[in-house]
From TrEMBL:
Molecular function in Gene Ontology: calcium ion binding
Domain EF-hand: 56-91
Signal sequence, start to end: 1-17
Signal among keywords: yes
Name of the featured protein: EF-hand domain-containing protein
UniProt keyword list: Signal
């Protein structure tokens, strides 16, 4: 659900008077009574123009929004949303969001939709209007348990007037999600075993506590129930939290699985191309050496981008031999010194960095036209990443 909201905000932001950035401004002070404490979308090209108010909460930024503030500047703007969406879709960390990523995102979205929508549809079939007894239960002798359906405490069959709170503040986490209006007739659950409902007239609506009172006006003679009852509506954040957690967990697991598959496929394709013309040998043929001379030996430096969040400065002293071998050593700012041994062929390189007996790193890369080497790596500690090194 949050991913869908992020994507919608990213798509909608450029349409705000065609300005470069649309910003969601959050209050950071607690207890402020000024109008500036509202959460609002602002046209940054014309800061005086408030596009629309989202909430009048006088507390600090709500937790779901705080998670989206990537750069911790107290606001969720287009830069934060674009970074989240790009990072989520770029599962193989190649810096590009291509057709394959979009197909994977659609697959994950379909899975989430199936998980989120199907249970609601199954639940919606239970219970009938008035005294109807929809739903069913059955006894399983092997399990010795009852499959008892769940019913909502009340339903709004004649929702002619939309909820004022939801209409005015659809994104306010503290707004009542489904609070009836004064005088509205709702169906109230009086038998949670059979799913029997009777109509009740709403009165004494309290928006502060999201509660209301109902006076029963109908029903059968068999069931005994109170003449009046006080019911409570969920707040928006209560309806957001559970779906967001489920969607986030399923999406996270799905993206991790897709990322692992993409990385493994890329490594297999690289190795197949690397070894194809030499029949599995790592040394290049003499004719290939004439067409592709060895890369320049020397000291190369760069910065890694790693899956564990670390960014390390690296320096590798590499020697490229005419027979296709690579040797050398290097140093990175976190793990210390390492030795290098490997091979090159045409414009591709592959070597192993050994950090003593602790662990090793397999590096696969391509020599670019400017002499720099663009690489991806995988360590025996299951850390992946990429880097580009250039000769000093």
């Amino acid at each position: 659900m949050i991913a869908s909201l992020i994507l919608c905000c990213c798509l909608a932001a450029p349409t705000l008077s065609f300005v470069p950035v649309a910003t969601v401004v959050f209050p950071l002070g607690v207890g402020s009574s000024s109008s500036s404490s509202q959460l609002r979308f602002v046209n940054e090209g014309h800061p005086q123009d408030e596009v629309f108010a989202v909430t009048d909460s006088k507390t600090e930024m709500p937790f779901p929004w705080k998670c989206l503030d990537i750069n911790k500047d107290g606001k969720v703007d287009f830069h934060d949303l674009a970074f989240i969406v790009t990072t989520a879709l770029d599962a193989n960390q190649d810096g590009l969001v291509d057709e394959k990523h979009v197909q994977a995102a659609l697959s994950v979205s379909l899975l989430l939709w199936m998980l989120m929508v199907s249970p609601v549809q199954a639940k919606g079939g239970g219970g009938g209007h008035g005294g109807g007894g929809g739903g069913h239960s059955h006894y399983s002798g092997s399990m010795s348990t009852f499959d008892q359906p769940e019913y909502d405490p009340y339903r709004r069959p004649n929702r002619r007037e939309a909820n004022r709170m939801v209409q005015l503040r659809p994104f306010d986490p503290n707004a009542c999600a489904d609070l009836p209006v004064e005088g509205e007739v709702v169906d109230v659950l009086v038998d949670d075993w059979r799913g029997n409902y009777v109509p009740g007239v709403v009165n004494d609506v309290q928006e502060g506590s999201c509660s209301f009172k109902t006076d029963m006006v109908g029903g059968g003679k068999v069931f005994q129930y109170p003449a009046s009852r006080r019911l409570t509506s969920n707040r928006n954040w209560q309806n957001w939290v559970a779906p967001s957690i489920v969607a986030g967990a399923v999406g996270f697991v799905g993206l991790i699985a897709l990322e692992e598959e993409w990385n493994s496929e890329w490594e297999r394709n690289f190795d197949d191309e690397f070894l194809q013309s030499t029949g599995g040998e790592t040394k290049a043929a003499a004719t290939e050496i004439e067409t592709f001379p060895p890369p320049c030996s020397g000291s190369y430096v760069g910065t890694t981008r790693e899956s564990d969040g670390m960014n390390q400065q690296v320096q590798s002293d590499l020697k490229f031999y005419s027979d296709g071998e690579i040797s050398g050593d290097g140093f990175d700012s976190e793990d210390g010194r390492y030795s290098v041994s490997g091979a090159w062929k045409e414009n591709k390189v592959r070597w192993i960095e050994r950090y003593g007996l602790r662990f090793s790193v397999t590096v696969r890369g391509e020599v670019l036209s400017d002499g720099s080497i663009q690489c991806r790596f995988t360590s025996t500690r299951n850390v992946r990443g990429k880097f580009t090194i250039q000769q000093k």
